[in-house]
Design goal:
Elements (H helix, E strand, L loop, with lengths): L9 H15 L3 E2 L2 H5 L7 H23 L6 E4 L7 E4 L9 H14 L4 E9 L2 E15 L2 E8 L11 E4 L3 E7 L9 H9 L14 E7 L2 H9 L7 E4 L7 E7 L3 H9 L4 E5 L1 H19 L2
Antiparallel strand pairs: 1-3, 2-3, 4-5, 4-8, 5-6, 6-7, 9-11, 9-12, 10-11
Helix pairs in contact: 1-3
Length: 293
């Protein structure tokens, strides 16, 4: 299923209106579209076309929510049993945020080649405005990230590019205030091949051969069935009688260390020594949390 917010068709317009209403009102009835699209001022054929797209938009919003484990809440109108009112899940008023933001970013990055004016929230209590040039996008662990550079060089902090989490982009709009500064998507593609996670290690960008010893057959199988990285390979199977060996070729990043620690006693780092030492030091520090009185 593509991005339902993308484009300027009647259908995309209806999707955006459903989404806007569902985010700003507790309950929404289809009848509100009469006023939004001024049905009284257009011909019957045009009304029919809009009504068809309104139904299609609602259906696809429901599908998009279902992919996120949610569903539209519906109830009959107390004044008219034939009508059904619809609402977003009450616990999440903005469940399709990423799709809406990506519908602005992707065309600007791939087609119109425009800079973006974004409102970004580096923390939940702070927002900043930037002019941003988007170059590349990646999904990691179910989360969307966009890569590029800020127009203000100081905001890039000397890095070749910055990584922004799409769910922290509050608003995004194209701007003609500055010309678009393109990036080489092939360079991003090559670099990100060796990155486990969303953020490269700019201080030590070299890709290292990582050897993992597995101590539990279930963990060994899980690492092969749900690989940490595309480069993971089995060097020795793990059984009840012997430990297993796995290798992968990645940068040494915080995400890599987090993933290894996630599997606890089921996985041991054999090499490189620096990664083994980092994991060991982290575990020793964790032990102090539980032994100090």
């Amino acid at each position: 299923m593509g991005n339902i917010f993308f484009g300027e068709s009647k259908y995309a317009k209806c999707v955006r209106e459903w989404d806007r209403l569902l985010r700003t009102q507790e309950w929404v009835s289809t009848e509100v579209f009469d006023e939004i699209f001024k049905f009284a001022e257009i011909c019957w054929e045009e009304i029919q076309a809009y009504e068809k797209q309104i139904k299609a938009a609602k259906k696809d919003i429901s599908r998009a929510l279902a992919e996120r484990g949610m569903s539209l809440q519906e109830k009959p109108d107390s004044q008219d049993r034939r009508r059904t009112l619809t609402a977003y899940p009450s616990y999440n008023k903005d469940p399709l945020h990423d799709l809406r933001i990506l519908a602005v970013i992707e065309p600007a990055m791939n087609f119109s080649k425009r800079a973006l004016l974004i409102t970004y929230a580096p923390s939940y209590h702070q927002t900043e405005e930037h002019i941003f040039h988007a170059h590349y996008r990646k999904v990691y662990n179910g989360r969307h990230y966009v890569y590029g550079i800020f127009e203000n060089e100081e905001e890039n902090q000397g890095l070749p590019f910055v990584t922004l989490a799409v769910d922290r982009i509050v608003e995004a709009h194209t701007t003609k205030a500055v010309p678009y500064r393109p990036g080489d998507s092939k360079n991003y593609e090559e670099l990100m091949k060796g990155v486990l996670g969303a953020s490269p290690n700019f201080k030590h960008p070299e890709v290292r051969r990582v050897v993992l010893r597995t101590h539990e057959p279930k963990v060994h199988k899980l690492l092969l069935n749900k690989p940490l990285h595309d480069s993971i390979r089995e060097q020795q199977p793990c059984t009840d009688e012997q430990t297993g060996l796995l290798t992968l070729h990645v940068q040494l990043t915080q995400e890599l260390r987090n993933c290894i620690l996630y599997y606890g006693q089921g996985v041991e780092v054999v090499s490189p020594p620096i990664l083994r030492r980092q994991i060991s030091n982290g575990l020793l520090k964790m032990v102090t949390y539980y032994t100090e009185q």
